[in-house]
Amino acid sequence: MTTSTAATPAVRKPIAWRRVALHAGCLAALLVMLYPLAWLLATSVKPADEVIASLNLLPSSLEWSNYSTALEGVNEVSVWRLLGNSLFIAGGAVIGNVLSCSLAAYAFARLRFRFRGPLFAFMIATIMLPHHAVLIPQYIIFNQLGMVNTYWPLILPKFLATEAFFVFLIVQFMRGLPRELEEAARIDGAGPFRSFFSVILPLTRPALITTAIFTFIWTWNDFFTQLIYLFSPEKFTLTLALRQFVDASSQSAFGPMFAMSVIALLPIVLFFLAFQRFLVEGMANSGIKG
Fold first, then answer.
1. Contacts with 252 (C-beta within 8 Å, 6 or more apart), sequence order
2. Which pTM was predicted?
3. Taking CA atoms, which of 33, 164, 214, 222 is between 20 and 30 Å from 61?
4. What is the spatial distance between Cα 256 and Cα 67, in angstroms, rounded to a whole number?
5. How far apart are CA 57 and CA 109, in angstroms?
6. Is residue 111 helix, strand or coil?
7. Which residues contact 277 (CB under 8 A, 6 or more apart)?
8. What SS3 class is residue 74?
9. CA Rg, the chain, in Å?
C-alpha cells in the first residue's frame, strides 16, 4: 500500500507537465494564427508613414481618418455600393449552389437511371480540373452572349451545378438518409420532386448550410474571376476596390486600404459565426444515425 501511494504522484507528474506543454503549444499556435488579423486591425489605424516604415504592431497614434477615407470608396463609388455589389454576387452564388447542387445530389444519391455511375465518376473527375483551364472557353461563351461586364458570368454557373465538390458533399449526406422516408412519401402519393422538397431537403440542412458557408466565403474572396468579367467601377466589388485603392493613390493609400480590408472582412466573420455550428455538423455527419 505504501509503495503504491508513493508512486502515484510520480506517475501523475509527467501527465500534468504534458498537459501544460500541450496547452502552451496550442496557445502559441493560436497567437501565430491570430497575429496577421491583429496586424491588419492595427495597421488600419496607423498613420501613413508608419504602415511600411515601422515594424511595431501598435501605432504611435490612432489615425481614424483611414476609415472615413475608406468609406468614401474609390472612383466616386461609395463603399456601400461596393458592399451591395459583393453581397448581391455572393448571395446569388449561395442560392444557385444550394439549389442546383442539392438537386443534382438527389439525382445521384436517391434516383436510379442509366449511366448514373459513369456520370457521377465524370462529375467527381471535374474536381481535379483547374479553374483556369475552363476560364477562357467560359469567357468566350459569355462574351458571345453579351454578358461580359455584367454579374451573369459570376452567378449563372452556380445555378448549373458546376461545383462538383458540393454535389459530392451533399450526395454523401443524402446516402445516409433512410429510404423508408421516401417510401412512406411515395405511398402517400408524393412524386420525386415532392419527396425531395418535403422530405429530403429539410433533413439535408447541415450539408446545405455547409455549402452556403463555403460558397459565400469563396465567392466573397474571389478576385481573379471578378477582375476578368467586370470593367465598370460602379459594378466593382470590395475585392476589386482594394486593388483600385492602391492603383489610384499608390503608397499614400495603404492606411485606407487596410481599413477597407477590415470592412470587407466583417461580413465573412459575421456569416461564419452565425452558421458555424451547422458547419461542424454538416462536415462530420453523413446522415441520420440509428
1. 48
2. 0.81
3. 33
4. 6
5. 52
6. coil
7. none
8. strand
9. 25
Calpha distance 238→54 (Å, rounded): 27
**Angle 109-115-118 (CA atoms, 0-180°, nearest 5)?**
80
Please list the alpha-helical segments (H only) found in 111-198: 116-125, 131-144, 152-155, 164-174, 180-187, 192-195
- Burial of 211 by CB count in 10 Å (0-12 exposed, 13-18 middle, 19+ buried)? buried
- pLDDT on residue 282: 56
State the pLDDT at residue 229.
94
Q: Is 149 left (phi over 0), alpha (psi -120 to 50) or beta?
A: left
Number of other residues whose CB lies within 10 A of the CB of residue 13: 10
pLDDT at 236: 92
Q: How far apart are CA 17 and CA 23, in angstroms?
A: 10
pLDDT at 138 over 90: yes
| pLDDT for residue 14 | 63
- Torsional class of 115: left (φ above 0), alpha (ψ -120 to 50), beta (otherwise): left
Return the pLDDT at 246: 63
What is the SS3 assignment for 77?
A: strand
Q: Does residue 90 contact residue 219 with C-beta atoms inside 8 Å? A: yes
CA dihedral sign, ordered 206, 212, 218, 221: negative
One-letter identity of residue 172:
Q
b/e code 107-144 from CB counts within 10 Å (16+ = b): bbbbeeeeeeeeebeebeeeeeeeeeeeeeebbeebee
Is pLDDT of 12 > 70?
Answer: no
